[in-house]
Fold histidine kinase.
Amino acid sequence: MREIEISLRRYILIALFLLATAIIALLSYFWTQQFFKGLDGMMRGTMLNLASNYSVSDGEQIKVHNFLIAKHWQALPLEVQQAFSPTEMEDNQLYKKVFRENLWNRPSAAIFVMKFRQGEQTSFISHQFSEQFASIPTPWYKSPEAIAVTVALLAIAIFGSIVMMLMHTVTKPVNALHKWASALDATNLEEPPPQFKYKELSNLAHLIQQSLVDVNTSLKREQDFVRYASHELRTPIAIIRSSVELIDKISPPLPIKCAKALQRIDIASHEMATLSETLLWLSKTSKPKLDCQPVYLDQLIQSQVKALSYLIAERDIQMSFDLSRYQVWLPSAAAKIVIGNLIRNAMQHTFCGTIEIHQHQNLITIKNIESIDNLEPQIDTLGYGLGLKLVEQLCQQLNWQCHIEFVKGGCYASVYFCKH
């Protein structure tokens, strides 16, 4: 299964945004918690100071600045007794209960209580807060929580703007590098690359150019070799073929061994000539002006089968044809190479079986199936490589539709010749 590709720029933006959001949210939470812890610390310090300075006796209550000090728990106000349990309270620790409608509103009431112990002296001190007098309600956005959220959102917005500016500064030369690399071809490959603001991108541009130069040099060398070799081989191949024909015509009947050797030379020269002609076609860097002429596909198939019939001599092969007379304008040399290679491929790789050739208007299909007794047919691609690759490349160069599929016991090939 193919992995989903994502944009590097989008990935970095999302990662930085999530990271900044998490950090700012945590800092805002800690800031709010520390703010309330500071208030609680001030309240606890005040209660400890008052409880240590005022001693109370049994049944006595002392009220100092809205703080109530009592010897026993039952002496505290009923609201305090209902809000807390003395058995669960630790010494000299502040306990509180805040009443508020929601997180964004100011608390309407609060109860604070502490169990004070100093040596053998114990007492309870409480403090109650409530809005006894009507006042203008404080807007929700002035609460500490709202301020913390606002500061956090503002920090995220500022951070996001800075990241976007940085990403734009970085991605602009990267996009320029991508555009420059996409425009490279054989005509401008030797030109010096431009500077891309950042040293790393400029070095990468030099590496890309050097790699493409090396590949282009190697490709050109191979194309020149194929073109020169194929061209130079045509003369000795022609000499070999003419010499074989001359020997066959003027010499007396040769012994069987010599005749078979001469036949193998003739077959090899035919194959070399076909291969050389195909390679010459493929080595052309630009599409040549095709010399099109009317071609009868059925006649071309029959002539190629007749010319290549030596490949299936002394083999148990059954050939079937389904041809219809159809004329189409094509470059005859290229069509001859393609059809000849496909028929040659089917004949060379079938030793005992069937070869089916169908032709309907522009479409030609060739199917060869190997059938050997007591042997289950299997999909085998061994040996099919070069010939079929040449056909595919030639069809691609001429905009012909070619489909090759390996089936059990053989191969299925089809070519649709587009009109020129």
Observations:
- The chain has three domains: 8-136, 184-286, 289-419.
